[in-house]
Design a protein that fits this description.
It comes from Novosphingobium lindaniclasticum LE124. Residues 152-280 form the EamA domain. One of its GO terms (cellular component) is membrane. The protein is mainly alpha-helical. Residues 1-8, 288-293 and 295-299 have low confidence and may be disordered. The chain starts with 10 loop residues before the first helix and ends in a 14-residue tail after the last helix. It has one domain (11-285). It has helices at 11-63, 72-98, 101-108, 110-118, 123-139, 151-174, 179-201, 208-233, 238-245, 248-260, 266-285. It has 11 helices and no strands. It is globular and about 55 Å long.
Length: 299
């Protein structure tokens, strides 16, 4: 007897899934904008500590990883994964303190882009790399450039990009225990990186509104996009997910302008567009795609 084929995904379901990815990216960047507004109160280190701690509590309540068994090898990968996740949170917030959110996110996507290109032998893919490097060169504060970007901010964003690349490589091993469990344990381990920095820079007393905004940041940057992306990935191909995720720098620039009045110059917008194009080109032309769901940044 011939098995009845499963019904194809409807156009409406695909549209809703694609919209979910876009909303998730907007949520992550909105969370970054709110986080940046907290910097004057608790500093970027304090925000990173609040975000990872609150996210860890929420994710542990959902995943309850203590009910599962892991091998010593899996535990080692989870620990490395969490340490990288904590470093990525600190690095990107240190970058956001010095440069606009849209530019920071644009530089950060060099991480997953580099992971894909490191295993590529296609000339076309190296053209995408050249495009991304050209965009990065436009952002470097060369002498006599009007409104130069902070060089330390660029360096921290590149550090976050390196952490994101390691996050992808370690995440493949860590996810063997299940994506929800890996993220919950990884976020808990990340607290061991962020909390000491947060405590060192924390004010004598933490205002209650800061805790409330920290909860908002954790939900917008972690819980909400995680749920949206996990649901959408069952409806979309990895290439489409990668393509839609490439929009993150543009959304970051727009939200940074609307929430924080961060204004990019024409040259900076060109750099952001070039890096978006490089990421999107790799997502469409390479397997696996360059862009993946940002548990990090869910983190």
């Amino acid at each position: 007897m011939t098995a009845t084929p499963s019904p194809p995904t409807t156009d409406r379901a695909v549209l809703l899934a694609g919209l979910s990815i876009v909303v998730a990216q907007a949520s992550i960047n909105l969370g970054a904008a709110f986080a940046k507004s907290l910097f004057p109160i608790v500093g970027p280190e304090g925000v990173a500590a609040l975000r990872t701690t609150i996210s860890a509590v929420l994710l542990l309540a959902i995943a309850r990883p203590w009910r599962s068994r892991v091998t010593a090898r899996q535990l080692r990968w989870l620990l490395v994964y969490g340490l990288v996740l904590g470093g990525m949170n600190l690095m990107i917030y240190w970058a956001f303190r010095r440069i606009p959110i849209g530019i920071g996110v644009a530089i950060e996507i060099c991480g997953p882009l580099g992971v894909v290109l490191a295993t590529s032998r296609s000339l076309r893919d190296f053209l995408w790399l050249a495009l991304a490097l050209g965009g990065l060169a436009l952002l470097i504060p060369w002498p006599d450039r009007a409104e130069p970007l902070d060089l330390a901010g660029i360096a921290f964003a590149l550090g976050a990009a390196a952490c994101w690349a390691l996050y992808i490589l370690c995440g493949k091993r860590a996810s063997q225990v299940g994506s929800t469990m890996a993220v919950s344990v990884g976020m808990t381990v990340a607290c061991f990186v962020t909390v000491p920095f947060g405590l060192a820079s924390a004010p004598a007393s933490l205002p209650l509104p800061a805790l409330g905004l920290g909860l908002v940041v954790a939900v917008l940057s972690s819980a909400l996009p995680y749920m949206l992306e996990m649901r959408a990935m069952g409806q979309l191909s990895s290439r489409i997910v990668g393509l839609l995720s490439s929009m993150a720098p543009a959304l970051g620039a727009i939200i940074g302008f609307l929430v924080l009045d961060e204004r990019l110059t024409g040259l900076q917008w060109l750099a952001v567009v070039m890096m978006i194009a490089a990421s999107a080109g790799c997502s469409l032309g390479v397997k696996p795609p360059v862009a993946t769901a940002r548990d990090d940044v869910m983190a």
